[in-house]
Amino acid sequence: MKKLSYVAFLTLLLASCAEKSKEQPKIVQAPFSDIDTLAINDWWNRGENPIIDLSIDRDQVVAFGLYTVSNNTLKLSAQLYPLHPEETREVRLEIQANGEWKEIQKQTVNQLGWSALFRVEDWDASKDWKYRIRHGENAQFEGLVRKDPKDKEQIVMAALSCNSNQDRGMRENYVRNINYQDPDLIFFAGDQSYDHTEHTAAWLKFGLQFKETFRNRPCITIPDDHDIGQGNLWGENGKISTSPGSPDGGYTYHPEYVKMVERCQTAHLPDPYDPTPVEQGIGVYYTNLVLGGIDFAILEDRKFKSGPEGKIPQQGPRPDHIRNPDYDPSSIDLPGLTLLGERQLRFLENWAGQNSEMPKVALSQTAFCGGAHIHGSLDNRLHADLDSNGWPQTGRNKALELLQKAKAVHIAGDQHLATVIKQGIHEFGDGPWAFVVPAIVNDYYSRWWWPEDEKAGSNPNKNTSLPWTGDYRDGFNNKITMMAYVNPESHSNGGGYGLIRLNKKDRTATFECWPRYVDVTKPDAAQFEGWPITVSMEP
Q1: Closest CA relative to residue 257, chosen from 77, 51, 34, 47
Q2: What counts of helices (H) and strands (E) characterise the chain?
Q3: Pick from 26, 156, 296, 539: most CB atoms within 10 A?
């Protein structure tokens, strides 16, 4: 056999490698290497992880779908498990018409986050449609796009938040209860993921836990601070945060990671009111959804908010915690500080003036006041928490004035403490009603409503045995009227969900608050003490 020279051998070797590279699909490298590691690059080489098994059978790679229908447009996100290099990146949407499945659209899966968005215009919302998302020959996820329930007198929404990773079990109680109550819409207010740097794996786990609640009904999901990898978020128009804990404002992690999280959680929402990105090219999603004759505003109450560090006098060991009860609240309500930002205020102004014949609901991550006194443990009393939307007070009042102008009720989460509060702007009771729903999992970090003097406020709620209801001022001197609260000594450690019944004829909203471990299918099922509460949607 003729011997090859070293140069000839090397030439043949390189040619062989080049030929093999043509045969194997390229691994697309993520723009970051230290976050979302379980689902990027050569993800199949990762070992076991505590979140979710990503090495599933290939006929199960379509994990779930999320959808809304608005303005005759269906927007449906397909969420997949990570794909191998040789697998197609194409997903297909089919609907059933006249008993037969018909493909109506194909889309390409984004390899950051493994999701794809279907957008179908001229959607017929007058009837139910079976749909299925398909990948390859056998993988699929099937569900129902419901018709617009505009003929119903009452529209029902389930609302949840704070899906702590300290309990990685399934959510059977929630699925059973919500499907039994059969709401028209489900709303997840944030913190669907607590695995800060592994959103894709945690988002897939969230879908595994809750997909049976939104398989057959529209769903609104909005990310909060933990979803994008931060304990707290003051987005400050998308800037880069460089302080530990991000009190300087902005985002800690790579903008492509933030964009991936928002794409997976919000791409299926109606088109944004103004899609102009903020700094670092991070998108926005604030918008409205009309469903069943109810106009829902979907807000981003973190993205534009000012960070406190370096802007206000520090009143405790952390820039965002005020420990001094004798401080002057006006000293931190300074010119130039932002809450919702001018863009969202313009949106709310426009929203308040449209669809005046419809009841309105504003959805956001957290409350427009400080509704908790004790954080985490009974020895940790905090006078004021700048992570809440009670600060900055001027921005808070601007937002509430527009919600009141719209005759809207406000639904939020985040606080791990369910409350119903009548907001006060200039006087007690002159603002909108607000229902903050409990945490899905509340066993590991709780908050308490517990006034320091342990006295009821003036004008207490006489329809409950709860001791501390009535008119109070929060730690920012905002006026609030506490109607009901769920401290963690309650059933299910204060964990659970909210159900909101919107009566279009009477223009009332009934707030229900259900404990996690109550079976609503039983005749003796009881809500938390203080609920239900029915309020007027007229000023």
Answers
A1: 34
A2: 6, 25
A3: 296
Asked whether the bond before 218 is cis by omega within 30 degrees of 0, the reply is no
Establish whether the linkage from the previous residue to 247 is cis, with ω within 30° of 0.
Answer: no
Task: Give the residue among 360, 386, 396 at the shortest CA–CA distance from 288.
Answer: 360
Phi/psi region, residue 290 (left: phi>0; alpha: psi -120 to 50; beta: rest), is beta
Helix axes 199-214, 255-266, angle to 10 degrees: 10
Helix (H) or strand (E) holding 210: helix 199-214
Residue pair 340/353 in contact (Cβ under 8 Å)? The answer is: no
- Distance, in Å, from the CA atom of 536 to the CA atom of 396, rounded to the nearest integer, reads 22
Q: What are the tens digits of pLDDT across the range 9-61?
A: 333 343 444 443 334 446 667 888 899 999 999 999 998 999 999 999 999 99
The answer to whether residues 446 and 494 touch, using CB atoms and an 8 Å cutoff, is yes
Is the CB of residue 180 less than 8 Å from the CB of residue 523? no
Burial grade of 407 (CB within 10 A; 0-12, 13-18, 19 or more): middle
Q: Is the whole-model pTM more than 0.70? A: yes
Q: What are phi and psi of 377, to 5 degrees?
A: -150, 160
